Amino acid sequence: MKKIIFVLLLYLILFTTLFSYDFEQFSKTYVDPSRDDRPILTQIYYPTASNEIFPTIVFAHGWLLNYTNYSQLSQDLAAEGWIVALPRTEGGLFPSHQDFALDLSFVANSLQIDGNDSTSVLYNMVDSISVVMGHSMGGGCAVLSAAESDVFDGLVSFAAAETDPSAINAALAITVPSITYSAADDNITPPASHQIPIYENLASLYKSFVSFLDEDHLGITSNQIAYNCMQPFLQYIITENISYLDQFEDSLIYYENFGNIQYQIVNNLNSVHNYELENNLEISNYPNPFEQSTEIVFSLPKPAHVDLSIYNLKGRRIKSLLNENKNPGNFQVIWKGENSKGESLNSGVYFYSLKLNNSESYSRKCILLK
Length: 370
Prior knowledge:
- The chain is α/β, with parallel strands linked by helices.
- The protein folds into two domains: 2-267, Alpha/Beta hydrolase fold, catalytic domain (Rossmann fold); 275-368, Sandwich (Immunoglobulin-like), CATH 2.60.40.
- Helix content is 28%, strand content 33%.
- The strands form three sheets. A nine-stranded mixed beta sheet has the order 1-2-4-3-5-6-7-8-9, sandwiched between helices.
- Helix 1 (2-18) packs across helix 8, helix 3 (97-115) packs across helix 4 and helix 7 (224-239) runs antiparallel to helix 8.
- The radius of gyration is 21 Å and the shape is globular.
- The N and C termini lie far apart (45 Å).
């Protein structure tokens, strides 16, 4: 216990001393020409340091809640080195969840454009890394947006609400790393019918569900524990350094030991399952490492629906190799080190993941060298 406390305090000291920026804010209206020039008024908090680039967070507000409800969180994140954008659309009694979800991804892409626009306040400041977050209705819309767009590298939801169209169903298409925050005393979006089914459907190779035992629906976004735990997770999104996930899990263990939270984690980023012993199923690739292409070989002992996909270290699905029903037998699939657009990928570590019957997935690493 003493070791855990020491390690956690060390992490917190590091995160509060190494990252501290002055910040400013401004409003900007983005216009989406693909939706009849839809205006998207957005509040943006940004670090003011020069000669640096910063990752972005697009944060979605809850039903009938103003962006100012999230001002402190936005300021804290900006001080940590994030550009935080809060679209202010769909604030009425009858919001369109679909439009709000599209607003989130449009703003994320627009921030990238601003980074290349010499007339923008954010010129030369915007990194390509982006995370989508949201609270309540906005949490559900963040799920919709992450499912529909490939601009986001991570997802964090606070007391996410089921939406129309369904965030629960949309979660099946999400592969990026995720945190699902939930409040045990939430009577507005009860976890059993909102956050839990969203979490269970997420296809993320790394996902976590964190339940706060003495928190309510509105207080969860200002909960200091939620903020503390989120910091190493966000550092993982930026760096792809898996040791930050160890720090994230250490913080969860610490707060669970003190009775603040309960949590679950699904981590298929590191796992290599023993298929031969578990299911009489074999899978491997050769050569590994490889330069031009590698052959993924697997055998099925019984009929199954097979989903074979390639993921990067952030858990983003970058190419689907196979998605169909297969009879028992031996199979070979060639991957040429490219993404779904046919573009060659950089050298690095990737995962090929085999999912059977849309249930359990099994992952192995392969190394692309160029």
